[in-house]
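Tutorial, part two.
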Amino acid sequence: MATREGRRFSLPRRNPDGPHPEGPTPAGPNPDKRRRKDERTRKQRIIRRCVWGIALLLVVCVGTAGCAYWHLDHNVSGIDLSKVLTDADDSGELNILVMGSDSRSGDNGDHAGGDTGGTSRSDTTAVVHINEDHTRAETVWIPRDTLVDIPACTDSDGDTVPAQQDAMFNSAYGEGGPECTVKTVEQMSGLELNHYVELDFSGFVDFIDDIGGVTITTTEDIDDPDSGFDEPAGTHHLDGDEALAFVRTRHGVGDGSDLDRITLEQQMATAVIDQVKGLDLVTHPKQAYDLASDLTKSLTTDTGLDSVSSLLGLGKSLTGIGADDVTQVTLPTETAPSDPNRVAPEEPEAGQVWNALKNDRPIPSSVVHDQRENPANSSTSK
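Running the prediction step on this input gives:
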């Protein structure tokens, strides 16, 4: 690696996470004191994305888009993160930070609801490690309310954001943007990150619709009036809005914790990869173009990936990675000593996860087997 189906469904009417913007974790009780002084607005979350699925789609879509290349190329937004990311040959091992934005700007407000006071947070964050041979991917989801130390960084206006100790992980993005989040992840993991990919609410809904929806199976009834997802146990094919409601479900199943919600998002990520693998976009050029157009418009990447040619190059190298080749874990956590409603990385398990990625090895099976069971699909093995 270099050095550096009828369906009782309604759209969301209010914040699915209830009156407390950051909500409890399973680590402790749910007292009012968990509302932090600086949390004055409600925050939503967005599906965690598998970057290899995005790249695979771009490989097929761009290959059939032809003369639309220029248009697609100018859809992608880029952020210069060269000061904090490490250059790497995309044919070798890679560490990619994948994030979701809860911004209400543009079309996002139509899907998200609620006001964020003009701010955004990274309530969805995953580190995707692609091994050197590009035959496997290890994904580590970082819970948003993990207490971490945030290093000093520079925000989008060029202002310095001072270092913080024992701060909520997602506040790094809220206060310092992508650069601060990159630096925070690198500090807590010891990894060198090579790329950054961000997708928004509107992009997720359009993405699911463009690939023809996704199929999920639950063994438990889910009825969450907050997210708008109301389905009996069974197999369901979801469109974009329904898929968004599914991954925003929190109080309709399980213990209502953010960590349980993460398992729904992991289930969705696997369903997306399976759906993408079954697409035949070569003989459906309009679908291919619509998909490529919607996807690129919703992406924000580092400047190393902010062109179709760059995304295409990365995508070609990831086409051999399918759902069976992806390991997904939530970073092992425990009750934070300083706050019973927050979590902290659990050692030595958290360190074992990061060390595996640093050494280009699979995540230890002991960590994988000890993951939380999906409360919506009790047949899921640990």
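The first strand starts at residue 77 and ends at 79. In part three we will examine how such features are distributed along the chain.
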